[in-house]
Structure formats: C-alpha cells, structure tokens
Amino acid sequence: MLRSLVGSEMCIRDRHRRAGITSRHLTAADATAQECVGFGKLILFGEHFVVYRVPAIVGAVSASTSCQVELSDAEWSSGLMLEDNRPAVPGYKIKKADEMLGGTLNVLRHFGVDPNKVGIKVTLGGELCAVSGIGASAAHCVSLARALARALNVSATEAEINAAGFEGEKGYHGTPSGIDNTASTYGGLLRFQRVLDSDPLFELVPIAHGGCRIVYASTGITASTTEVVGDVADRRQSDPAWYNSLEREYTGEVLPIAEKALKEGDWGALGRAAGMNHRLLQQLGVSCPELDSLVDTALEAGALGAKMAGTGRGGLMFAVCGDSSEAQEAVFRALSGVAPQVWKTSFV
C-alpha cells in the first residue's frame, strides 16, 4: 500500500501482501473492513485511457476518509444532514457540494434508505485532504457505504462495499471508470481494467523488494472530473484516429515498461514511463500549465520522472524518486517551494 505522509518518511508493506493475498478475489477479512473508512489513491498510469477499458495501475494511499452515520429511530423524523469535517484545499467543498450530495444520495438509495422517510446524519472526517486527483470522492462514498452498512446492521462484503462506492461515484462523475472506488475499498497497488457488461478486473501488482519513494503535490486547483472526461470523450468521438494513436502508445509502450519496472525495481525505467504517460496526457488536453510546471520542478530537482495524476487540469502530480531518501527529500523541498501542498509517500 502507498503510505501517505506529510513532512516525514515511512515504508510499510502492502497489507494484502502481508496477509498473503495474491489473487484478484481480495478478502474482506481485513481490519479496514472493520473501520468505516475509504482510502485515497493515486493513478500511477493510465488515467483517462482506463475509461475505455484499457488497463491502469493505481496505488491506494494510507490517508483515508472516515464516516459516521446516525439513523433516527423517532416515529416522525426525516431529512439528511451532512457534516463535512475533512481537510480540503480552498474552494474544494464549495465546488463539489452538489456532486457530494448526489454521491451521498446514490449510496443511500443503493442501501434502500430514503431520507424523506427517515432522518439521517452523515459526518465525514479523517486525514485525507480533499483535493482533485487523490480520489476524495471515492473515499467519501466507500466510507459512507461502510458506515451505512454498520448503522443498518448489514453484513456487506468488500465487493458489495465496492459496488456501493461505484454507485456513489456516479453522483460525482456521471460515468466513473470504477478505478477510484476499487482502490479506496481494497487498498494496495492494483492493476485495474473495466470489462464490457461485467465486473472490472483487478489484481495486486507485484513490486520489487525495497519499493520506490515518490513525492506528490497539489496545484491547489479543483477540476470537474465530469467536464474533463466529457471533453476527452468528445475529442475521441470527433477524431478516433487521433485518440487511438495515443491509446496504442500507452498500451504498447508505457504500460509494459511500467509493469516490468515495478516488478524488477528499475526505477529509472519507471520514471521514463511516467514521463511518457504525462506527454500523452498533455496531448489529450488534460494537463495544464500548473501541472507541467510542477513536473518540471520535480525533474530539475532530480526526480527520475514525473507526471500528472488523476483528472488533470489541476489536482495532483507525482514524482518518482527511486530508493533514495536523499532524492525524495530534494524533490520534496523543491516542490514545497512552489506547490500549496506536498506529501511524501513510498510504495513497497
């Protein structure tokens, strides 16, 4: 699992690998399932392409959103109260307010709860900073699903929690890929792929012993995933040859290099793959000057590679620092001088 830290370093083994879980059928016998939380995530490779059933690699961060649900048992009680105590970048909660309400209502409907018939209070907290690119919406929906199942005394499997999180994501993104809620539910480093008319495929990604250090940073800009994904869809429809050429480069070059590099611990190759993926995302029109500037700053500070992560046009980027704590610290310092928020992370 990716472990998210602010101003410090830590390498902790992936909790699924520690439990000996290697198949795509991940178990619910996990401490996470006993807590009403949803993890944040970073899409390492394949954002936007993943919408069209192309494999992507995503890593969950240990920072999470927590949720508490209170159902009224009064004879006459109705209505929904939302209390959002999550840390967030300025403007995020205001811009996402309608989407957050839509996601919440979707999860409630998924469990058969009607706030017109029963009073319900939802309280969000946790240490995950709500910022575009970190999967804050999925963490909200997954943590709510866990808390609602607990409040209803329903025994929900991890697959059922994931399905509820996916329904909630529709309130934020319209047509989500499913990658964010899957990472938020299960944690770990995953290879994810949508499948037509079936559940998505996902499996743990093997990584070389010792792992890789990264730094990720926020532009402070909150983007609408629905708008950005919609723009890509429009361009793809109007010029399929253009889109297909970019997708072929991703699947034929970037993804194989990234997967081989993770397995063999070739962090230089992983950095090169990150740079290649970023250039494809620039061509898709989903990067922005602020993201490109942070990527350049990280490279100038010695990062092996860097790219935007997630929706784009704001949000986050990350930098590959290999196994060097000195390189990670140098990149962290450089980005801290120009970015509103910066975090250190390792995936192992």
Structure description:
β6 (189-195) and β7 (198-204) form a beta hairpin. Strands 2, 3, 4, 5, 6 and 7 form a six-stranded mixed β-sheet that branches. The chain has a five-stranded antiparallel β-sheet with strand order 1-11-8-10-9. The chain has twelve helices and eleven strands. The chain has helices spanning 15-18, 31-34, 92-95, 97-110, 136-151, 158-173, 179-186, 225-238, 240-264, 267-284, 289-300, 325-336, and strands at 3-5, 37-45, 56-71, 80-84, 120-126, 189-195, 198-204, 212-218, 305-309, 316-320, 341-347. The protein has 348 residues and is of the alpha+beta class. α4 runs parallel beside α5, α5 crosses α6 and α5 crosses α7 (179-186).
Short description:
The protein is an alpha+beta fold. It has helices at residues 15-18, 31-34, 92-95, 97-110, 136-151, 158-173, 179-186, 225-238, 240-264, 267-284, 289-300, 325-336, and strands at 3-5, 37-45, 56-71, 80-84, 120-126, 189-195, 198-204, 212-218, 305-309, 316-320, 341-347.
Structural class: alpha+beta
The major beta sheet can be summarized as: 6 strands, mixed
Mean pLDDT: 88
- Gyration radius over CA: 19 Å
Q: Overall 3D geometry?
A: globular
**Which stretches are low in confidence, meaning pLDDT under 50 for 5 or more residues running?**
1-33
Number of helices: 12
State the total count of DSSP E strands: 11
First-residue to last-residue Cα separation: 7 Å
Reading the helices and strands in chain order gives EHHEEEHHEHHHEEEHHHHEEHE
Q: Kindly state the percentage of residues in helix.
A: 40-55%
Proportion in β-strands: 15-25%
